[in-house]
Task: structure prediction
Amino acid sequence: MTDRITVEELAELMKKSAGVTVTPEELGLHNPGFDTLGVDSLGLLGIVGELENRYGTPMPADAERSKTPRQFLDLVNSALMTGA
Result:
């Protein structure tokens, strides 16, 4: 396990926690909004919860309000890097 969440890991989490199948390429190249991808607030909350369980640390409060995968990854990875 690394201290950074990759686009590939986020794609896996989206499938597991939100039931949305998307390729890492779609997330990385186009940076669509979560709403465009079909991930609602409960799905995003599930992803945040999974990461909190995995890393044993709370994720930033703003993570569950992220509008895009890139914004989400920036927030979460920043928190993981600083240990916040």
